Amino acid sequence: MAAAPRKQSRAQRLFQRGAALAAVFTAVLLIGVENTKPMRWLETGTYDARMTWSLDPSRADKSIVILDIDNPSFEILKESFGRWPWTRMAWAGAIDYMADGHPKVIAFDFKFGGSEDPKVDQAFAESIRSGRNVLLGFSFDPAQIEDVSDVKNRKLALLARESLSDSHILGEHFPPADQSLNVPLDILAKASAGMGCLNAVYDDDGAVRRMPLGCNYGDLAFRTLDTRAVDYVRGHDASRFIRDGRYGDSTGERIPVDANGHLLVWFHGRPHGTYERVPFWKLVCSAAPDSCPNLKEPIPPSYFKDKIVLVGASASGSFELHSTPVGDAPGVFDRAAAIDNLLHGEGILIAPLWQHWILIAIMALVGWMVLTRLGVSVVGAPVMLSILGVYAVLAAAVFRVEHLWLPMVSPLSAGALAYISAGGVRYVTTGRELRATRHALERHMSPQLAQYALEHGDNLAGERRELTIFFSDIRSFTTLTESLRDHPDKLLALLNEYLTAMCEVIFKYEGVVDKFIGDGILAHWGAFTEGKNHALLAAQASLEMLDRLKQMNADWAAQGRDQLAIGIGLNTGEVTFGNVGAGQKTEFTVIGDPVNLASRLEGLNKEHHTSIIISEFTLEHLRGLVQTRELGGVKVKGKTIETQIYELQGLATSQEPVPAQTVGSRA
């Protein structure tokens, strides 16, 4: 018959409710703080790690080339062009040389504001116009001196051809209208094939992870240099800049964008080695090889055929370096990656807010379930850590394969905090009850067995099972008590020393000390040693107890103290065990006829001049494992057939069986 469902205590009911409330509170808390600066900082840290893990430079577009103004270019060309900014004739020559190779587009990632010299400006404009594919940059910068009205109108008129009609759909984080316009010189702007704004977007930590697809000034909207370059390559006269949910359609491709219309860039590789770089000095020397006799491999104009050329600076003095998920990089590298994404419909898709909330709630629920089912044991904590690890791996894998940014910090925090807070609730509510139970159990068994009993001991409420019962008694204890009547302290010291030693042996063999009955010990095996031969454990413990007592008697004799002898009875049978009692007074004990028989067997040692007597029921579990001597039968109450009993002499492998007359024999 199945046991009735175990009724929960008041403390357990409080724990269940409190743990559930703790999990709900954790989920609400994490949802509330997810968008705070510290949480964003932690999340972007996991984002950067996932991006680094997902790098694959082989997927980068090979048509993108960076004409790099690097440190060697500054050093090698300082005699020819002087200090930065260089004369615009240098750029005119570079455009003319590359134009002979017919690149798709040449885009400058810096501005040409103001006039250098009318003749130089005119020559540079002619090179831009003859190239027919040169894009220039403009920006909105903090206004130190506000543009006067006619200057501002002239600049706006210059940008009019680049303005888009869909300005209302742009995000709120683009430069406001009180900033100054920094546009190319009129003659250069009119000669160019188009212009794009150069303003960047920085996260809280100063890193660039996203690029705007457009920027606005008042009621006007413009494309960025990245978007403008892709439009030019694809032959768009005027790009639509549209946000549809989480996607933008600015170049004919469906591009994932964030809530502000920014492209979260998918970097294929690190700043060096992902896109081909041509040092500017090498291009100048290739155009004028006589001035660079040490140039070994000039770059022919044909190298630039069908290339998308981005002109930018990586030199340390250019102030263009900033942090990215893949390391410190110049702005031109970010633009190259953004153009690559726009050309191929790539980018990082951000999970919507409602999915964040669901993941937080699920992980909080998981934390609560693990704690309430498995607790904080050697099982619960590793299981929880494993679940958190699995989520982290899945989030990283989804990022790498699907380019989807799932939140990592807030769901992991929800799971961990729900588990920890539920554990705290458990400590406050059921902890006292558990500690009291553990303390009570440790009076009966080893601390390790007590912990096992708490973790697996639903049977503490009561269960019937086959156990091996142990009874021991000190012979002639009454006589000993009388001899020490005037020295009760010596009697108690002797008894405590004996009981301590015997309990150590019982605990060693995973036994449970039920109680002390005067000088007697009631113990049993099998309640918490599932799968083990409880009769053998009891037999081994009984034999070792005799050995231990023999050693103790030798020590006591040398000290002139009294010695002890004991008798032991072992019986195996089905008994009821569990907590018995009410209120503050409970004890873990065994009940049943097999207990009474074990007690009777212990008393028969005096009659048979033995130390350990076992029943036929115990012997059934010890066949071939021990040495015994048959003692005959004994009448058991309620049974018509006598129970056969045996003297336990030793283990089967023992070379010296325990004799019938030992230190533990009755006189």
Topology readout:
Blueprint: H1 10-33, H2 37-53, E1 64-69, H3 71-76, H4 78-81, H5 88-99, E2 105-108, H6 118-131, E3 134-141, H7 149-159, E4 180-182, H8 186-191, E5 194-197, E6 210-212, E7 214-217, E8 220-223, H9 225-234, E9 242-244, E10 247-249, E11 255-256, E12 262-264, E13 276-279, H10 280-287, E14 308-313, E15 321-322, E16 329-330, H11 331-344, E17 349-350, H12 353-374, H13 380-402, E18 404-405, H14 409-429, H15 431-442, H16 447-456, E19 463-474, H17 477-483, H18 488-508, E20 512-517, E21 520-525, H19 534-559, E22 566-582, E23 585-591, H20 593-603, H21 605-608, E24 612-615, H22 616-619, E25 626-634, E26 643-651
Parallel strand pairs: 1-13, 1-14, 2-3, 2-14, 3-5, 17-18, 22-24
Antiparallel strand pairs: 3-4, 6-12, 7-8, 9-10, 10-11, 15-16, 19-21, 19-22, 20-21, 22-23, 24-26, 25-26
Helix pairs in contact: 1-12, 1-14, 5-6, 9-11, 12-13, 12-14, 13-14, 15-16, 18-19
